[in-house]
Design a protein that fits this description.
With 262 residues, the protein is mostly helical. The protein contains twelve helices and no strands.
């Protein structure tokens, strides 16, 4: 099977984008411009990344180029979490810490135990999948942490007034945030193979790899991602909620937009 997609094939695939725009026009959703921008932006980003990856993943490219790429992923993920959840104090530093801890745990297990060989062709894509999924969970954790504290402020202050330290008073909130942030990845892991075929497995099968071999790779990646999401979520939630209390166990003032919304 020729797995290459020609330019004609790529252009043909955009017909489904026309369908999406047609639905928006038909139902007067006002999303035509956003759909068009997202389509063009995705193509530009992927072409740019593909060109850069061709250099990083070249057979004679040094491995440290790939580590620089990973550092870029960690930094960009931290900046993205900051832009999506600005109400959490110090969210950029917390997200960077969560990404660093997640990377150390995931890479240590994956490469230290020989699940995959430490090469550019494994390091870069695994880092992208691990940090990318962790980033989405971090956004949910950071947003829900601030929102839940704002909504339960009176209850929290009552607990603090009874003499509970902030870590104990906020324990129900921490548990709720962690459950909310982890649930999507758990449900994805449950449904994999039954409802949808993940991208890595699909790509390998399209490339002509034996389906069983593709399943083995995909299963390992799913377990790695689940562990990475759990690690990342725990770090940003536990550290983040401490930033919402002073050292003498009082709640810090929340941004007016969050406090007002509660």
């Amino acid at each position: 099977m020729d797995q290459d997609v020609s330019w004609v094939g790529l252009i043909a695939s955009t017909l489904l984008v026309v369908v999406a725009i047609g639905v928006s026009v038909w139902r007067r959703l006002g999303l035509e411009r956003d759909i068009a921008i997202a389509t063009v932006r995705a193509a530009g980003q992927l072409l740019a990344v593909g060109s850069a990856l061709a250099l990083v993943l070249a057979p004679d490219a040094p491995l440290w180029w790939s580590w620089v790429w990973v550092l870029g992923i960690v930094a960009f993920a931290g900046a993205t979490v900051r832009s999506r959840a600005p109400a959490l104090p110090g969210v950029l530093g917390i997200s960077m810490l969560a990404n660093a801890v997640t990377a150390v745990v995931a890479f240590g297990l994956v490469f230290g135990m020989g699940v995959f060989p430490l090469e550019s062709r494994t390091l870069v894509p695994i880092a992208g999948m691990v940090i990318g999924n962790a980033m989405k969970a971090q956004v949910v954790s950071a947003q829900r942490t601030v929102e839940t504290v704002a909504q339960g402020r009176l209850e929290l202050e009552a607990r603090l007034a009874l003499g509970q330290p902030s870590s104990v008073a906020a324990r129900p909130i921490t548990r709720s945030v962690l459950r909310t942030a982890l649930s999507p990845q758990i449900e994805t892991t449950k449904a994999v193979g039954l409802v949808f075929l993940p991208g890595a497995m699909t790509g390998l099968i399209l490339a002509g790899v034996d389906p069983i071999d593709a399943v083995m790779v995909q299963a390992a990646l799913m377990y790695i991602i689940l562990g990475a999401v759990a690690t990342s979520t725990a770090v940003i939630t536990l550290v983040g909620i401490r930033r919402l209390f002073t050292r003498d166990h009082r709640l810090v003032p929340l941004p007016r937009s969050v406090a007002g919304a509660s």
